[in-house]
């Protein structure tokens, strides 16, 4: 089996949003939408802080589809548009998506976005990788783990572009992969989001 995933070093994340913008450019994500975003833990504002001056702290958490082993989105999809592929990724068949947004409601990570209107892009042209399908109004979108790149043996663009090398991509089912070895080595320093939901995210976070 193959289980492609990403590990994210929270101590290295500086909240620069490069991952979000690299993802947007690679995947031709329309204006007003993001597949990958960076939130500030414990705070509603982007780039906000918690605490009271002068005792403030800020922790960035990059967030996208967690490519769960037990995805809630897949269970509620009435058409089979959401599926788990042979690489362990959770993907969307845009031709089968009817825009019911059941997956959007089921995802505990708020990782999906919906094309409410005809997609608009700055410059009025498609800027993404030519291999990436162009989505239309009325379908769901989300991180695909850069399917077109990873199918070709390349790394996701968010991993390539991260200036602090906070992201590690690989196969969790391959004990010789850097990612699998990293997860094993970090032990109790490995965190997954909303573990109590039982979706078993493959994306994980860790500290130095």
Largest sheet: 4 strands, mixed
Low-confidence stretches: none
In sequence order, what are the helices and strands, one letter per element? Answer: EHEEEEHEEHEEHHEHEE
Give the termini distance in whole angstroms. Answer: 29 Å
Would you write up a description of this structure?
With 208 residues, the chain is of the alpha+beta class. The protein contains 6 helices and 12 strands. The mean pLDDT is 93.
Briefly characterize the structure.
The chain is an alpha+beta fold and 208 residues long. It has 6 helices and 12 strands.
Question: What distinguishing features does this structure have?
Answer:
single chain, 6 helices, alpha+beta, 12 strands, 208 residues, 4-stranded mixed β-sheet, two-stranded antiparallel sheet, globular
Helices and strands in order:
Blueprint (H helix, E strand, L loop, with lengths): L3 E6 L8 H9 L10 E4 L9 E3 L2 E3 L2 E4 L8 H5 L5 E3 L5 E3 L9 H5 L6 E2 L25 E2 L5 H5 L5 H5 L5 E5 L6 H9 L3 E2 L12 E3 L2
Parallel strand pairs: 1-12
Antiparallel strand pairs: 1-10, 2-5, 3-4, 6-7, 8-9, 11-12
